[in-house]
Amino acid sequence: MLDNKQGKRAKTGGSRDLKKKKKKKKKKKKKKKKKKKKKKKKKKKEKEKEEKEKEKEKEKEEKEKEEKEKEKEKEKEEKEKEKEKEKKEKEKEKEKEKEKKEKEKKEKEKEKEKEKKKKKKKKKKKQTCSNDIT
User: pLDDT tens, 95-134?
Assistant: First the structure.
């Protein structure tokens, strides 16, 4: 009564078939459990991957922010340096102008003194001349 095609006995006696059915059911359940576990693992891995990617993106954004801040600070420093340079240049120019004015003043004074001396000399000459005549 063996049926070679199916590899099991014909459906006359029942206990063996029941056992096989139970085994099959168990196997199916195990397979389902395994599949569920695999799905869970996959989901977990995907979640972890997403979290890692999010973290990486956050880090990238933070780095970019820091770089921007650094650049801003650098620009500020450069501007301050430029302002200081300009201030120094203005001060130098002011000093030069002051010196120039002082020099001019001194020159004018010298000229005045020279003129005074000349006038004095002329007066003296005139006086001597007038004395001679009388």
Answer: 999 999 999 999 999 999 988 888 877 776 666 555 555 5
pTM of model > 0.85: no
Q: Which amino acid is at 77?
A: E
**Residue 3, C-beta contacts closer than 8 angstroms, at least 6 positions apart:** 9, 10
pLDDT tens digits along 49-71? 999 999 999 999 999 999 999 99
Token readout for 4 is 């070679």
Encoded amino acid at 76, one letter: K
| Cα 41 to Cα 4, 28, 45, 50, 81, distances in angstroms | 41, 20, 6, 14, 59
pLDDT recorded at residue 134: 52
Q: What is the C-alpha separation between 40 and 34, in angstroms, rounded?
A: 10
Q: How far apart are CA 3 and CA 50, in angstroms?
A: 55
User: Longest Cα pair distance anywhere in the chain, in angstroms?
Assistant: 183
Residue carrying the six token digits 């501007």: 79
> Vertex 51, ends 45 and 54: CA angle to 5°?
145
Under 8 Å between Cβ of 26 and 38: no
